[in-house]
Specification:
about 160 residues, alpha/beta, five-stranded mixed sheet
């Protein structure tokens, strides 16, 4: 019979890195070929860093709520749908069942810009219940283009995410 296959996710970032990036190459690492392994596994390593950065962005959004910089009763998490074209919102803030905050987190060196904002706004159209005036936020390792902040978009870099 056809049944859904479960998908597992290792929540601990260190263990996820160990099993997702390093474990299969342990013999080569132990044979002092670590630099070659790192070059070969760079894509998996960057994907892992992206996942960790998304988690950190959600944590940062939660701290913004606690500090009163976002509505105090906002519940922060992520959202995705697999019906139709798959869509994922990295950082979603809900007030009851209404989406108030929509955020994108990207582990890329260049600052996030209008293209990422347009993609996030397009994702908003797929949400079941969206506020009339949602808050958009971008978290990028390289920050956010300064012009977007002037348009009422929250923008954060890695230093913002890591600072308390």
């Amino acid at each position: 019979p056809r049944r859904p296959r479960p998908i597992y996710e290792i929540a601990d970032p260190y263990l996820a890195f160990w099993f997702g990036v390093l474990y299969s190459d342990l013999p080569q690492i132990e044979a002092r070929q670590g630099k070659a392994v790192l070059r070969r596994r760079r894509e998996q390593w960057q994907r892992q860093l992206g996942w960790v950065f998304e988690e950190a962005a959600r944590g940062h959004a939660t701290r913004l709520v606690q500090r009163g910089e976002l509505p105090r009763d906002l519940v922060v998490g992520r959202w995705w749908t697999a019906t139709g074209e798959p869509v994922e919102v990295d950082v979603l803030g809900l007030h009851g069942t209404t989406a108030i905050l929509l955020g994108e987190a990207r582990w890329q060196e260049r600052p996030l810009g209008a293209r990422e904002l347009r993609a996030l706004i397009a994702k908003a159209g797929r949400l079941p219940q969206l506020a009339d005036d949602p808050v958009y936020a971008l978290w990028g390792r390289g920050g956010v283009e300064s012009g977007l902040r002037g348009q009422g978009v929250y923008g954060f870099d890695a230093e913002d995410v890591l600072s308390e």
